[in-house]
Amino acid sequence: MSILVKNITKTFKNLTAVNNISFDVKEGELFGLIGPDGAGKTTIFRILTTLLFADKGEAIVADYDVVKDYKSIRNNVGYMPGKFSLYQDLTVEENLAFFATIFGTTIEKNYDLIKDIYIQIEPFKTRRAGKLSGGMKQKLALCCALIHKPKVLFLDEPTTGVDPVSRKEFWEMLKRLQKKGITILVSTPYMDEAALCDRIALIQDGKILEIDTPQEIVKHYPKKIYDVKTDNMYKLIECLNTYEHHYSVYPFGEFVHYTDKREDFNPKDLQLFLEEMGAVNITIQPTETTIEDTFMELAK
Amino acid sequence: MKSKNVIKVENLTKKFGDFTAVNKISFKVKTGEIFGFLGANGAGKTTAMKMLIGISIPTSGDAQVAGFDVFKNPEDIKKNIGYMSQKFALYDDLTVKENITFFGGIYGLSRKQIEEKRCLLVEELGLQDIVNELVGSLPLGWKQKISFSVALLHNPKIVFLDEPTGGVDPITRRQFWEMIYKTANNGTTVFVTTHYMDEAEYCDRVSIMVDGKIEALDTPTKLKEQFKADTMNDVFLKLARG
Question: Least CA distance to B195: which residue of chain A?
Answer without folding.
Answer: A163
